[in-house]
Design the sequence.
């Protein structure tokens, strides 16, 4: 029995669906019977077990906790050729935050609740209890692996596993589409707006900007959504009279970027807020 098969059987005993990986960290390809998904394909059914093929086909959907399947003839041959073991996090009730570099790890430590961590070749896997949709590149160097996705098995890791936080779920929530797809520079925002000014003194505006900076800085989860809502609140209050300057906007952008938002994310969130309010960005 190969070492990889022993690992897979141990995972199955723990309720973690396992599958073999080839060189390059990729699953085994579909067998001739399932080529081009003529069998219907397990991933199309959104759950393992829809295909009766005896081979480890269909990527993540091949993962199983059935030791009889894992130890069957076709699978044993695959295990002999396997270069590693993978598992289906969603099938085990888990979500993996795949952090691919030191910058991503630093962001996670500053933005996410501590949980069980597993060292990887270039970074770390952070494991949470709970499932969600999987998504790649939700932030630079950050992937989410849960439902309909596989992750490499690299050990049980260390630390107490926390419940899946809203901060991770929010990473896959897309902001409303920007009015312009190309990156924009922020120059004298809203200089074209000249409505009646409700501010008796500049102090009122400065206090509003300071409160907005504080709201962004104190965000512990759903940072992207918090930035957008804060921009929306500032613009709804101060955006129609022409008092907002590039300096005010730069203060908000600086606070957002200190929480890990990119300049592009900031610009898109600002433009989305302007569009929502029907204001003109010039």
Sequence:
């Amino acid at each position: 029995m190969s070492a990889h098969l022993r690992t897979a059987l141990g995972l199955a005993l723990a309720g973690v669906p396992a599958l073999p990986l080839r060189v390059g960290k990729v699953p085994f390809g579909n067998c001739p019977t399932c080529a081009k998904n003529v069998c219907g394909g397990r991933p199309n059914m959104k759950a393992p077990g829809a295909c009766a093929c005896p081979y480890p086909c269909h990527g993540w959907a091949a993962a199983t906790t059935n030791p009889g399947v894992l130890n069957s003839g076709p699978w044993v041959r695959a295990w002999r050729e396997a270069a590693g073991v993978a598992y289906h996090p969603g099938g085990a009730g888990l979500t993996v935050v795949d952090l691919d570099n030191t910058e991503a790890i630093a962001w996670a430590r500053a933005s996410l609740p501590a949980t069980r961590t597993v060292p990887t070749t270039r970074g770390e896997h952070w494991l949470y209890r709970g499932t969600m949709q999987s998504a790649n590149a939700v932030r630079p160097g950050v992937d989410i692996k849960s439902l309909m996705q596989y992750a490499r098995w690299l050990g049980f890791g260390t630390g107490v596993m926390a419940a899946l936080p809203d901060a991770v779920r929010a990473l896959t929530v897309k902001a409303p589409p920007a009015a312009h797809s190309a990156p924009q520079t922020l120059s004298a925002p809203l200089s074209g707006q000249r409505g009646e000014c409700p501010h008796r003194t500049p102090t009122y505006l400065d206090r509003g900007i300071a409160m907005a900076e504080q709201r962004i800085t104190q965000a512990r989860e759903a940072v992207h959504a918090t930035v957008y809502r804060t921009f929306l609140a500032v613009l709804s209050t101060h955006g129609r009279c022409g008092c907002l300057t590039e300096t005010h906007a730069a203060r908000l952008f600086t606070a957002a970027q200190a929480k890990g938002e990119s300049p592009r994310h900031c610009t898109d969130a600002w433009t989305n807020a302007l569009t929502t309010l029907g204001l003109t960005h010039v």
